[in-house]
Give the backbone structure.
Amino acid sequence: WYQRRVRGNMSALSRLGLSDAKIKDTEKNATLSSTLQNMVRQADERNVEIDKNVGTLIYNLATKLKKQEHLPVIYDLVLQRKVVNDMQLVAALEYVKSNPKCEVGRLEDACGVGVTVT
């Protein structure tokens, strides 16, 4: 049972594009590991492909977000490919930090959804 659980954890975390060393380090934090596994499972349930970029954004979101109540809103933006880079993710995190009653439209404006920088 334990080996199957560990293999399942490694598999979910490796889908985020994490190195083996980063996976082992992440698994030391049970809360973070569980959060990331749930996020991968939710992406699978929505048939969302987790490429390297999305995997990095998911990992950064899970590690940087202080209040988990805002996780679903920002996570949806990542899965919908509306938040596509770390700069947008940081802006989204800053927005929810200073706006506890998060309004999705304002969050999207604050993190530059739909804005392309060349």
Remarks:
- Helices lie at 2-14, 20-27, 30-45, 52-64, 71-79, 86-98, 104-110.
